[in-house]
Every structure is written in structure tokens, then in C-alpha cells.
Specification:
Number of helices: 17
CATH architecture of the largest domain: 3-Layer(aba) Sandwich
CATH class of the largest domain: Alpha Beta
Helix content: 25-40%
CATH superfamily of the largest domain: ANL, N-terminal domain
Strand content: 15-25%
Number of domains: 3
Strand order of the largest sheet: 4-3-5-6-7
Number of strands: 26
Shape: globular
Radius of gyration: 25 Å
CATH topology of the largest domain: Rossmann fold
Distance between the termini: 45 Å
Largest sheet: 5 strands, parallel
Length: 570
């Protein structure tokens, strides 16, 4: 792969100035394209800048600039403007998962001491119905339409719809309020509280400062192969720091145009219509797309033809000739026909899937991040062929090392240091202290190793390790990857389960691909899955054998970022 031919991205000093500079450079170019009802909206860089400054100025006019402002809803340009406008005026943004229960929502809003909340129409009525349990909230800002708030409540919350909110900021600026631009950013101060996804059953409030976000956004710009010619489709939840930092903040710094997917139901249709040339995804999307492609290949009886094409493409690449688009144009058309690269993080992707996509002409750059690191830690660099199975090299401004228990250990805990690392957990000194070494390295809780070329490989999660009675350690992620290669298995979780004698047995919880078992009884499905697991066991050392199999009829429960809530399955 040749070196990237693009102008170096501009450094991100602070988010307010980043948007101003992007507006000066890209002006009326689309920052976002999205649908409101049946209408397609094109929001320019200039208009987004105006939204940000109006949000920041309105917060000052309401006397809540500098306070904690929550935002919740489906991905939208309004969330981006709220995010940047809040931080730009010296406040603290609190992005919340749109899939939280009403009880969790109340808990998070109170824990984060939010003074106002901006919310999408989905939450009309939900938030205001809980107003009596939210004494800190003084302003309710629905993104569209009106909502009712009980005026008899003792703390008298006020309703200010989005259009009126922006109009307030605009009028204040016209009247001489320049507070948004005269505010001097303190890059070391907390500017965001992000509640962790809860895959472990608990959520902590990660405190990030503006330096953290700017460092990670700039590192994303430096690491990805994207520039002002890039067209993205946003499909991941925006409250998640991976999507916000890598697919929104970094994209806006580069001058990218982004189409906001309006429904997971229509994601493939939106790929076809908008024709992105790049994507930012999590493994579940990659694996789903891959299975659809494979099913289509088999349905059309093209398996042999595709296998021959793979060999030809690989041989041609070896001598510097790229014929992948010619051979596999029909396959790439499933993503709109123009996607050449995908950034993927959040969990490992099977090396065989990565290799196949590369052969089809779509390079997947696996990366690694964690909310506490804003989130980017490592990524496969775009100027080199990806190292399949590795999450790549540490990104700009980040140092990584392995903390081994003994010199003889091949793996150890991954430690991180850099300006991307969080300030700590909100109002939780004990938890903060537990994740930092005495000399300031952040303990990720992930286990892995670094090869001689500096590439990071993750082998498992420290808290997920299964310790057998013979003292052997087994990382379930490794076994789950083996299971993911089976076309009969859609999802799996591997756990250690005590049998009647108290002995820990490696147990595979499996949700089959039910489309492959049409007309089969439950007993036949279970027997086939057990045979499949036994075949996999034959390729593994005996101590890693999955001797117990439990077949499920329903998908595993997941977070909004499509990670299985592992803590629910024991």
C-alpha cells in the first residue's frame, strides 16, 4: 500500500476554534446530511458553526453556561452542536445512552447534577414525566415540537424548544453578547462526563477534559486515511465516545461530509443511496455484512468463482497489480460500491473476515480504544497493509506498555499513558485510584502483548478470564472467535460454570443462526450445534475444550454500542 497523499490535518487546539476554522475552510459544504420526516436536510459547516455559537451563547443568557448539560437521543447534528456549544462556553456535556431505562436516566441525570437536558422527540413526555425526581434540572430543551412540564413542581423547570433555544442565543449575540468567543478554554478542566456502557453491570462517570478530546480527535485525523473528500455514514450511537470522537469530531476537523443513518432497518439501503467511501463500525456490523455477502454468494452459486477470484487478486497484489475492484465490484456494491476502508473497534474481528474484506478491496483498519482514553489508544496505520489480528500501533501522543506478572509471562495487562487519558471517575476517588499505577499509567483491564514491531495484540479481558481447577487460565474471547467462524452460530458467550462437584467447566452459550435451521426441531438444532462445537474442540488444547454447550432461542442482550452484556450470563 502506497503512502497517503493528503495534506496533514490541522491540529485540534480546542473544539470551539476547530469548528470556526472548519467553517472558514469548508463554508457551505455539507457537514451533515440527514432526514427530518421525509425531507432531506443539508447542514453546512457554516450553519453548524452558527448552531454551536448560538447554543453556547443561549446557555450564558440562561445563566447556566459552565454547568452540566445532558443530551440524549438518536444521532443528530443537534447533539454535535450541543456537545461543542456546551464545552465551548465552559460547561460540562453529559451524553446519555438513548436506550437507558427511565429509572437509569433519572439516576444518571441526578448523579451528574445536570442543570438542563437537550432531548430528541423520542423522549418527549418521558423526561418531563420524571421532572419531580429531577430537582437539579431547570431547563428542558426538546429538539423539536413542544412538551409539557408540570408548572406546579417546586423547582419550576422551564421548557425551551430547540428553535427558541437557538433564537435566544442568536438574539443575545445580536445584542452584543460575545461570551462564547471571549471565554478562555481551560483544557485541563473537566468538560464531559461519560457513563460507561455497563457491560460489567456497573456504570462509572468517566471525566474527560478538553485536552483529552482534542488529543483523541487529532490522533484520529492522523491515523485514519480520511480527508475532505471522505463521505461517511454514521450508524453508531453518538453518546459513545468512539463514535463521537472518531466519526464526528475528527471528521469535522477534516472537512468530511457525513450522512446520518435514520434507522438500522435501512442501513444497507442508505449505504446504497448515499454511497460512502469510508465507514466507522463495530465488529457486529462488519460480521453481519460479511454473512450477508457470503449468503448471497452461495445463493447465486458463485462460491467457486469467488474463491478463484481471491487467489487471482492475492497473486496480482503480490506483484503490485490491484484487480480487486474489477473482480469484486459486485460484492462491494452491497455497501454502495465506493467503500475502500472501514475503521473498526470495540471488539476483535476474526482475522479470516479481515483478510476476505481486504481481498475484496475493502481494507478494515482494526483499532483499540476505551472510554477512559477518550477513547483512542491504537489503530492499524493507513500507510501500511494491516496486520490482521492486531489492533495496530499506539496512535499519536499515546504510550502503551505491558504489565507482566513475571518475566516468563507472554502476556500482561495493557497500560496507557498520554494526554488522552481521563481525569478520573466522577466523585469516585477509590475507583480512580484503583485504575492508575503509582507512576500514572492507566490500567485498561485488557490483557495482551506487543510484538517486536510495536503492534499490539489483545488476548482477553482481565475480569473475564476463566481460572480452571488445574490453575490454567482461559480467555473466553479466544474461544468465542473460534465459534464465530461457524456459519451455524450467530452469537456466543463462553463462561466458566461450576458443575455439581464444584469443578469449573468451560461452557459455551450459543445463539444459532436460526435461518440455517428452518424446519428443524429444538433437539436437532442442539445436536448439530454440539457437533459443531466438538469439531472446534478438536483443534484446541484439551484444557480449552468447551465441554458444556447451552443453546439459546433468543439473541444475547446488548448495549447500544452492540456489545453483549456479558455480566448477565453466568
Amino acid at each position: 500500500m502506497s503512502k497517503l497523499k493528503r495534506n496533514p490535518p490541522k491540529e485540534v487546539k480546542n473544539l470551539r476554534d476547530m469548528i470556526v476554522e472548519s467553517a472558514e475552510k469548508f463554508g457551505d459544504k455539507d457537514a451533515y446530511v440527514y432526514k427530518e420526516g421525509k425531507e432531506e436536510v443539508h447542514l453546512s459547516y457554516n450553519s453548524l458553526k452558527e448552531w454551536c455559537e448560538q447554543v453556547g451563547t443561549a446557555l450564558n443568557a440562561l445563566d447556566i453556561a459552565g454547568k452540566h448539560i445532558a443530551v440524549i437521543g438518536e444521532t443528530s447534528a443537534k447533539i454535535t452542536a450541543t456537545y461543542i456549544g456546551t464545552i465551548g462556553s465552559g460547561g460540562v456535556i453529559v451524553p446519555l445512552d438513548k436506550e437507558v431505562s427511565p429509572e437509569q436516566l433519572v439516576n444518571f441525570l441526578n448523579r451528574a447534577e445536570c442543570a438542563a437536558i437537550v432531548y430528541s422527540p423520542t423522549f418527549n413526555g418521558v423526561i418531563t414525566a420524571a421532572a419531580d425526581k429531577l430537582p437539579n434540572l431547570t431547563y428542558y430543551i426538546p429538539m423539536s415540537g413542544d412538551d409539557d412540564v408540570d408548572s406546579t413542581l417546586p423547582h419550576s423547570p422551564k421548557l425551551l424548544p430547540w428553535k427558541d433555544f437557538l433564537a435566544l442565543g442568536k438574539q443575545a449575540m445580536e445584542n452584543g453578547d460575545d461570551s462564547y468567543y471571549t471565554h478562555v478554554p481551560d483544557l485541563e478542566k473537566m468538560c464531559a462526563i461519560l457513563f460507561t456502557s455497563g457491560t460489567t453491570g456497573t456504570s462509572k462517570g468517566v471525566m474527560l477534559c478538553e485536552k483529552n478530546l482534542c488529543t483523541a480527535a487529532y490522533a484520529s485525523c492522523m491515523t485514519t486515511p480520511y480527508d475532505h473528500t471522505t463521505r461517511l455514514v454514521s450508524v453508531l450511537p453518538q453518546h459513545h465516545t468512539y463514535e463521537m470522537t472518531c466519526s464526528h469530531l475528527a471528521a469535522l476537523n477534516l472537512g468530511v461530509s457525513e450522512f446520518i443513518n435514520d434507522s438500522l432497518k435501512y442501513v444497507m439501503r442508505n449505504f446504497a443511496n448515499y454511497k460512502p467511501n469510508a465507514l466507522v463500525l463495530v465488529p457486529l456490523f462488519v460480521e453481519t455484512i460479511y454473512k450477508r455477502i457470503n449468503d448471497e454468494i452461495k445463493k447465486k452459486g458463485m462460491s467457486k468463482k469467488v474463491e478463484t477470484g481471491k487467489k487471482l487478486a492475492t497473486a496480482a497484489l503480490a506483484v503490485g497489480i490491484d484487480i480487486r475492484k474489477k473482480l469484486f465490484g459486485q460484492i462491494s456494491s452491497a455497501l454502495g460500491g465506493e467503500v475502500s476502508s472501514i475503521i473498526c473497534g470495540g471488539a476483535p474481528v476474526s482475522a479470516s473476515i479481515l483478510k476476505d474484506f481486504y481481498t475484496f478491496g475493502i481494507t478494515i483498519y482494526e483499532g483499540y480504544g476505551i472510554t477512559e482514553c477518550s477513547p483512542l489508544v491504537a489503530c492499524n496505520p493507513p500507510d501500511k497493509k494491516p496486520r490482521f489480528g492486531s489492533v495496530g500501533l499506539p496512535v499519536y501522543g499515546v504510550s502503551v506498555k505491558i504489565d507482566k506478572t513475571s518475566e516468563n509471562d507472554e502476556t500482561g495487562e495493557i497500560l496507557v499513558k498520554g494526554d488522552n487519558v481521563m481525569l478520573g471517575y466522577y466523585k469516585d476517588e477509590e475507583a480512580t485510584k484503583a485504575v492508575f499505577t503509582e507512576d500514572g499509567w492507566f490500567r485498561t483491564g485488557d490483557i495482551g502483548y506487543i510484538d517486536r514491531d510495536g503492534y499490539i495484540f489483545i488476548t482477553g479481558r482481565k475480569k473475564n478470564v476463566i481460572i480452571l481447577s488445574n490453575g490454567k487460565n482461559v480467555f473466553p474471547e479466544e474461544l468465542e472467535e473460534h465459534l464465530s467462524h461457524s456459519e451455524l452460530i450467530k452469537e456466543s458467550v463462553v463462561i466458566g460454570k461450576a458443575d455439581e462437584s464444584g469443578e469449573i467447566t468451560i461452557t459455551a452459550l450459543i445463539y444459532p443462526d436460526l435461518e440455517k435451521f428452518e424446519g428443524k426441531t429444538d433437539e436437532e438444532i442442539e445436536l448439530t450445534i454440539r457437533d459443531e462445537v466438538n469439531e472446534i474442540n478438536r483443534t484446541l488444547p484439551s484444557f480449552k475444550h468447551m465441554n458444556n454447550v447451552e443453546v439459546r432461542k433468543e439473541e444475547f442482550e446488548k448495549t447500544s454500542s452492540k456489545k453483549i452484556k456479558r455480566f448477565l450470563y453466568k
